[in-house]
Amino acid sequence: MAARVRFQCAWRRRRISPTSLPLLRAAMDPAAAALDHPPIPVYSTAARRSLSQANGGGDELRPHHKPLSLWPGMYHSPVTAALWNARSTLLERAVNSSNDGPSQVNLLTRAPGESRTSVLYNFVSDVALREQYRNPWNNIRMGKLMEDLDALAGTIAMKHCADDDSTTRPLLLVTASVDKVSLKKPLRVDVDLKLAGAVAWVGRSSMKIQMQVIQPATDIVTDESLALVANFTFVARDSKTQKSAPVNHLSPETDEEKALFAATEQLELKRKQARSKQPDQADDQRVQQLLAEARVLTDMPALADKNSILIQHTKLENAIICQPQQRNLHGRIFGGFLMRRAFELAFSTCYVFGGHRPVFLEVDHVDFLRPVDVGDFLRFRSCVLYTEEENSARPKIHVEVKAIVTQPESRSSQVSNTFHFTFTLDTSSSKSGDMVVRRVLPSTEEEARRCVSRYDADH
Q1: pLDDT value for 71
Q2: Cβ partners under 8 Å of residue 361, min gap 6
Q3: pTM of the model
Q4: I need a labelling partner for 55 at 20 to 30 A (CA). Which of 46, 158, 428, 430 fits?
Q5: d(CA 16, CA 34)
Q6: For residue 291, how many other CB atoms are within 10 A of its CB?
Q7: Residue 4: which pLDDT band, with cuts at 50, 70 and 90?
Q8: Per-residue model confidence (pLDDT) at position 358
Q9: Phi-psi region of 355 (alpha: psi -120 to 50; beta: other; left: phi over 0)
Q10: What is the pLDDT of residue 374?
Q11: Average pLDDT of 191-203?
């Protein structure tokens, strides 16, 4: 049976036949948001159906349609495929637009509701879809869900930035960072799940997008149904000059939207202040204290605390050549794909370190420092940066993953992304319910400063 997911906007609640592509196009046009269009079903890659088949047609495609399989990045996940399909109007405009067209000058003012978008996972009724998201322990594959979150955030950013003028060149929207993807309760693969999100705050050229995972899937979000909260930051670039470009304004309407806007603005101000902060004497003392403890491990291992280990002994690494199938519309490697690969390596690192199955808690922070291109030799390097053992029944393990682009021809190597994940351990296999987690210590000053900086940011 073909796996199916349903893409729907908050302002549409009634069902229509999937045979009307013009309605799909109208759904992605924010100017048509006020029109009475029902929810739009979208097929996953597992269905292996072209747009013409989804429209009830035969093998022939209309001249202005592009087969779903020809959009880049389609193989990643069913929901990513559904979102790319639903973005088809804006994507085709981006492909067909010339960089010689005028830039977007006339900025619009949009409400958060105009970008609000949701995706429904029919896990209960769709066995094929459920199987694609099931991990070995019959839970959700979190890496795949993060990939979908990034795709949904990109869709929301595109909808907010659309200027309703087909003659202007579209903006290049880039994921700048991800903050606090916090899991509030375990996610199940046998219960319907919904992703929903909207633009929460807008600066001159940046946007904060807040998304929620709701399970069981309901229209009204409650404390019991809210399973995960994620915050993505996107920045806009001029597709011709590559310089920062202004984005449409945001006008919160409801009390909840206004409160979220104000809170996000305050958080953004605090982050700017933290970035400008210089290391103080107290930080230097903490760095030297960590290094002094680590020297016992390096110089006198027989006398060292058996519950301590050096960071360098927790490392794992893998490498890939970035393929064309992993690219986004702009020819760069899809950010969600990088997040999934980083998460899976972090999970493995925690598994080997802790000796028990990891339980994901949150993504503390992700920095997208530079783009990754097709053909790049990409290395993922992970380590346990620090641990927290105060609660023996629920220890915390903080894992750092760096994605490094290596170019052998030019003898260069640069960090493209830095990811920070927090896990605990499954205590069900422990007779006492407690887990012994070793303390991790840095052996170099650079590692020590990373530990101190990350600990302060997390707390």
Answers
A1: 47
A2: 182, 183, 396, 422, 423, 424
A3: 0.80
A4: 158
A5: 17
A6: 17
A7: very low
A8: 94
A9: left
A10: 87
A11: 93
Q: Which two tokens stand for residue 79?
A: 């929901």
> What is the three-state SS of the chain?
CCCEEEEEECCCCCCCCCCCHHHHHHHCCHHHCCCCCCCEEEECHHHCCCHHHHCCCCCCCCCCCCCHHHCCCCCCCHHHHHHHHHCHHHHHHHHHCCCCCCCCCCCCEECHHHHCEEEEECCCCCHHHHHHCECCCCEECHHHHHHHHHHHHHHHHHHHHCCCCCCCCCEEEEEEEEEEEEECCCCECCCCEEEEEEEEEECCCEEEEEEEEECCCCCCCCCCCEEEEEEEEEEEEECCCCCECCCCEECCCCHHHHHHHHHHHHHHHHHHHHHHCCCCHHHHHHHHHHHHHHHHHHHCHHHCCCCEEEHHHHCEEEEEECCHHHECCCCEECHHHHHHHHHHHHHHHHHHHHCCCEEEEEEEEEEECCCCECCCEEEEEEEEEEEECCCCCCCEEEEEEEEEEEEHHHCEEEEEEEEEEEEEECHHHCCCCCCCCCEEECCCHHHHHHHHHHHHHHC
> Residues 439, 290: contact at Cβ < 8 Å?
no
pLDDT at 74 over 90: no
pLDDT in tens, 378-426: 999 999 999 998 887 889 999 999 999 998 998 899 999 999 999 999 8
Q: Token digits for 183?
A: 């899991």
User: Whole-number mean pLDDT of the chain?
Assistant: 79
Q: How far apart are CA 322 and CA 455, in angstroms?
A: 32
Give the separation between CA 145 and CA 153, rounded to whole angstroms. Answer: 12
